[in-house]
Write a structure and sequence with these properties.
CATH class of the largest domain: Mainly Alpha
Helix content: 55-70%
Number of helices: 19
CATH superfamily of the largest domain: ABC transporter type 1, transmembrane domain
Number of strands: 14
Shape: elongated
CATH topology of the largest domain: ABC transporter transmembrane region fold
Structural class: alpha/beta
Distance between the termini: 72 Å
Strand order of the largest sheet: 3-7-4-5-14-13-6-12-11-8
Number of domains: 2
Largest sheet: 10 strands, mixed
Length: 580
């Protein structure tokens, strides 16, 4: 019971915000219409139950006029049922897409807000494959929640509607055994209840492992798909290393998890299907077994027998909804757990940014970046790099050097506000535009102009101006292809990507530009040309570079060096000479 309550609470937490959102009135109206139609359909089934008695009595009595009348009445009910069923499906699907659209935007906002997606990877939370959770699990949650909820509501209303009918029929046709009538109030209702409880208990006992198995299946499928994508994205490196056999083994290993878990699902579903199919077939004749003695004793007509069997079947179906929906419930439970895990991972990543001790990046009143008592650490708490009191003035040119792996790139991440592990305060001038340019820049799959202008809107800059900047960065052949859409990270060499990154910096004109070995793939002459271009086009921009080449000293005025010690690394002023 605790598990059911916890699951329902999770469903309410995930589902209810939509019905209080900006789209709440459309959602509520559609949901109300779907529920109203379902209740009307239940009402039609009640009328059809009465029709069963009249129709079969007409057949038994060979009453032609009554037979024709009942056919006409059935035609009207059937037409209403078909029309309602069609529009219920249409409105249900309309509600699904609106709800899914809102939930997808909600999860994208939560995932991408304030570098949460990055911190979720750092925190080690178990929110694997967020792409699957947003794309597939949201879809499954919306469709399953609506379907299961409507079916449960229908079963509840059907149960109460036919309980009264079955109770009255029990009085009209008492239990007849061995020539004796036993007047047991509502015996048909108690028989249906007993049958459904036994079926539900056995179904849960047999099918319970499916919940965990379905959860694992979704995870293994997503892992396999993710690694297929990684092979595609890193095809060149794999081909150069002749790593195809190794990748094949890795992919088959992950696919082996898919297969083995699927075989476990097959085995469990075989057992569940064997029971539920037997249960369903027995349910067809069980009401006739209960009522036939009274019929053969002449206590009721054929119509009464058929009406009783129909009512018994409706009650038994309503009570056995758990048996009918068990597989769907198992899948639904797995989806709920995955979305709940994603929510918890997002909340944990959000807490990382604000729960002390953290590296605090705050707006400053001055015109310089100031660093006070900064201690950057790894997620496990290991000290990485520290800076007691540093200032990077506006218009400065600073070169950051130090051994590989000493934490220079992580220091930049802390400056950008995406690395929370550590302590200290970084004051950044208010309203200053800061740009981080990594060694491998990111370009969306888009026209080249839009890819260079990212993260600005695609039409925020003139294509001709972007083409001129691309040519100035040393890629004149690409300047004429600004309208061409492609996967630029895959098509271009790393050196060409770095030149496009410089073109992006020239376009965005940041106040502070941090270059994390952003020209490392260029030769020294090309690198010098790029830095002269930055000095010429961005004269007022503060440039802070991470680099290992001694030739970079000529383009900077200060040097910050990482000195390793027993407590990690310390960032301090160092000498800067052109000969270095």
């Amino acid at each position: 019971m605790k598990g059911i309550i916890a699951t329902l609470a999770t469903v309410w937490r995930i589902a209810s915000p939509y019905f209080w959102s900006e789209d709440r009135w459309a959602g509520r109206l559609l949901l109300g219409a779907v529920i109203a139609i379902e209740l009307t359909i239940v009402g039609i089934t009640v009328l059809l139950n009465s029709w069963n008695a009249n129709f079969y009595n007409a057949l038994q009595n060979k009453d032609w006029n009554a037979f024709v009348y009942q056919l006409g009445f059935f035609t009207i009910l059937a037409a209403l049922f078909v029309g309602l069923a069609v529009y219920q499906l249409y409105l249900n699907q309309w509600l699904q897409i609106r709800w899914r659209r809102w939930l997808t935007r909600h999860y994208l906002d939560e995932w991408l807000a304030g570098a949460n997606h990055y911190r979720m990877q750092l925190s080690g939370e178990a929110a694997d494959n967020p792409d699957q959770r947003i794309a597939e699990d949201v879809t499954s949650f919306v469709s399953s929640t609506l379907s299961i909820s409507i079916q449960l509501l229908s079963s509840l209303v059907t149960l109460f509607s036919f309980m009264v009918i079955l109770w009255n029929l029990s009085a009209a046709a008492p239990l007849h055994l061995f020539g004796i009538d036993y007047n047991i109030p509502g015996y048909l209702l108690w028989a249906a209840l007993f049958y459904a409880v036994i079926g539900t208990a056995l179904t849960h006992l047999i099918g319970r492992p499916l919940i965990a198995l379905n959860f694992q299946q979704q995870r293994y499928e997503a892992d396999f798909r993710f690694n297929l994508v990684r092979v595609r994205e890193n095809a060149e490196q794999i081909a150069l290393l002749e790593g195809e056999p190794a990748e094949r083994d890795r992919l088959l290993m992950r696919f082996g998890n898919v297969v083995s878990n699927w075989l476990a699902i097959m085995s469990r579903q075989k057992k569940l299907t064997f029971f539920t199919a037997t249960y369903s077939q027995a349910a067809v004749v069980f009401p006739f077994i209960m009522v036939s003695p009274a019929y053969f004793a002449g206590a009721m007509q054929l119509g009464g027998l058929m009406q009783t069997a129909n009512a018994f079947g409706r009650v038994q179906d309503a009570l056995s909804i758990f048996v009918t929906l068990y597989r769907s419930l198992a899948d639904w439970r797995a989806v709920i757990e995955r979305l709940d895990g994603f929510d918890r991972s997002v909340a944990s990543a959000q807490a990382l940014a604000v729960t002390p001790p953290v590296v605090a990046v705050e707006p400053g009143d001055g015109g310089a970046v100031t660093i006070k008592e900064l201690a950057v650490k790894l997620p496990n708490g290991t000290p990485l790099i520290a800076a007691r009191d540093l200032t990077i003035a506006a218009g400065d040119r600073v070169l950051v050097t130090g051994p590989s792996g000493s934490g220079k790139s992580t220091f930049f991440r802390a400056l950008a506000g995406i690395w929370p592990f550590g302590s200290g305060t970084i004051h950044v001038p208010k309203d200053a535009k800061i740009m981080m340019l990594p060694q491998r820049p990111y370009f969306p799959i888009a026209p080249l102009a839009a890819a260079v202008a990212y993260p600005l809107e695609p039409d925020s800059a003139d294509n001709a101006a972007i083409g001129e900047l691309i040519a100035a960065a040393g890629l004149p052949a690409l300047a004429a292809r600004v309208e061409e859409e492609a996967h630029w990270n895959r098509m271009l060499s790393l050196g060409e990507q770095q030149r496009l990154g410089i073109a992006r910096a020239l376009l965005l004109k940041p106040d502070y530009l941090f270059l994390d070995e952003a020209t490392a793939s260029l030769d020294e002459a090309a690198e010098a040309s790029v830095y002269r271009l930055l000095q010429e086009r961005l004269p007022g921009t503060t440039i802070v570079s991470i680099g290992h080449r001694s030739t970079l000293a000529a383009f900077h005025r200060r040097r910050l060096n990482v000195e390793r010690d027993a407590e990690g690394g310390r960032l301090s002023e160092g000498t800067l000479a052109a000969a270095e």
